[in-house]
Amino acid sequence: MAVKFRAQLVYLxxxxxxxxxxxxxxxxxxxxxLPPMTVTPFPEETPSAPLGNAVYFVILIALxxxxxxxxxxxxxRKLIFALIAVALTTASLxxxxxxxxxIFAYVPSLAFLVLxxxxxxxxxxxxxxxxxxxxxxxxxxxLLGGGLGVFFSASxxxxxxxxxxxxxxVYDVFAVYYGPVGKxxxxxxxxxxxxxxxxxxxxxxxxGDLVFYSMLAGSLLFEFQPALLPCFVSLIGITxxxxxxxxxxxxxxxxxxxxxxxxxxxxxxxxxxxxx
Length: 276
What we know:
Helices cover 71% and strands 3% of the residues. The protein has a two-stranded antiparallel ribbon. The protein has helices at 13-31, 49-73, 77-104, 114-132, 134-155, 158-177, 180-186, 207-224, 229-252, 259-273, and strands spanning 197-200, 203-206. It is built from 10 helices and 2 strands, in the order αααααααββααα. A hairpin with a 2-residue loop joins strand 1 and strand 2. The model has no long low-confidence stretch (mean pLDDT 90). By secondary structure, it is mainly α. It is globular, with a radius of gyration of 18 Å. The longest helix has 28 residues, at 77-104.
């Protein structure tokens, strides 16, 4: 008989590792801010921009999940692998350039090393995800989640980021119980989406959960700096929410990863911002 899953604090290790790595990346960008980048389609000056950006992100993620579900149903493994490889390689290269550029800004004479080192890190990342697998893949995914989430938090205006997180938390419930994410998980399709999820012991979590946890903490850090309390409280909220998610996972076998951490992290962080 299979051993029944039990919620334990040890399962929070990957979440905390991703958040801490993301905060390290965030402090690099605090010292060396990103140049203007267009990540959301609507400029924040427009009153309806945050709502439009949130809807855009939800539609984009919903379409992506649906496409992968259809490809899994059709057993198009080569196409699935190609799409994931292109997406993750691009993300790894972009983040490597951004964060190495921030580091080498302190030693401009060595800035020529940014591109070759970025390519090297991307090759190592791809080897970990697509060839080595196991712990190497999990570590790569955890670090990618933290770095990518902070990149989003530094590139997306605060109000848009808040609405995106709230909308995605709501969509996550639908996607897990009625939409493509739940169908993929129930058919054990996550095993075929190498790099888009990680497994720690007997728990599987999507890369997207880690990305949006770090995006939440990073957004509060960038918005309310130099005050650290909102970000710190949000980290506590995300951690508590993640453990509540594990408790629900123990009871139900499958549970969306965003609602509890996003609600507790956002509510705690914003309330803390009122007292600083």
